[in-house]
Amino acid sequence: MSDYILGIESSCDDTSAAVLCNTLVLSNVIANQQVHEKYGGVVPELASRAHQQNIIPVINTAIHEANINKNNLSAIAFTRGPGLLGSLLVGSSFAKALSLTLNIPLIEVDHMEAHILAHFLQDGENKKVPAFPFLCLTVSGGHTQIVKVTNYFEMEIIGKTIDDAAGEAFDKAAKIMSLPYPGGPMIDRFAKEGNPTAFQFSEPRIPALDYSFSGLKTSILYFLRDQLKLDELFIEKNKFDLCASIQATIVSILMKKLILASEQTGIKSIAIAGGVSANSGLRKAIQDAGIKYEWEIFIPKISYSTDNAAMIAVAGYFKFKLGKFANQNQVPYARQSSR
Length: 339
Known about the structure:
By secondary structure, the protein is α/β, with parallel strands linked by helices. The chain has helices at residues 44-65, 85-102, 111-117, 166-176, 183-191, 214-230, 234-237, 239-265, 280-293, 302-305, 309-322, and strands spanning 4-9, 15-21, 24-31, 75-81, 106-110, 134-139, 144-151, 154-160, 269-273, 296-298. Helix 4 packs parallel to helix 6 and helix 4 (166-176) runs antiparallel to helix 8 (239-265).
């Protein structure tokens, strides 16, 4: 039986809508917000206003590209959180109104769970999906977690950051270097031209499987401050090597705990998810570790790594099959699920 799920994602600064037939992606439309570039970061009020402008054309485009009619939809899935409250309200309010209009189920989705479930998306290539249980390193601008995934909605966080996220460390390092926004992809781009061992930055010693990135940010800040006193052109002269060294340090921190998690759990099916999983250095590191430790590796397409509605729709599909529907009274959450 074919179930058509409309997914709506509006957790941050991208407005996205997707239509799935079961787990097959029929469309996945994303409208980016360029307005934040001149501010060097996402401005919440501007983001929510842009979502209001984008959401109707984005959803219309997604339905049109899927070559279906809105009356063919079986359910509507939306991001409930975590994210920016103003942005989430736009997506959730529209989803609620549309579900009432079409008289079809409404499904709330946790953004971080959706990143993990993106591995179950199909787009015509009949790709292999992870078998349970598997470990997923979920890394983004706001989260860094190692998650043990036992079932579609049975997930245990066995390691997490105690302060800043890996994505934030990338972005803050880029800002210190006065690189254009968004900073993380810029570091990745310049790192390809640099020497990853040119500069050494200290790695934190955090017990168990948890992470910390605040100390690294401070280390980078003080190092560049001292070097700029000696040569005001230091960053410009060493931009590629700095980016390569910063990226290598962050990737090293991430991988050491992931390797430890695999050793402790005995799980060798390993996945990555979240916006930072698009980083080329991290992708290469996990592929190399897969060969060394005989892991079975699952790396999402770039289009499914960053925020997108297809991952919301596939999470919605699995909830739809279980009959896990939301009601009109549920409100977005900014930081953590109410589960």
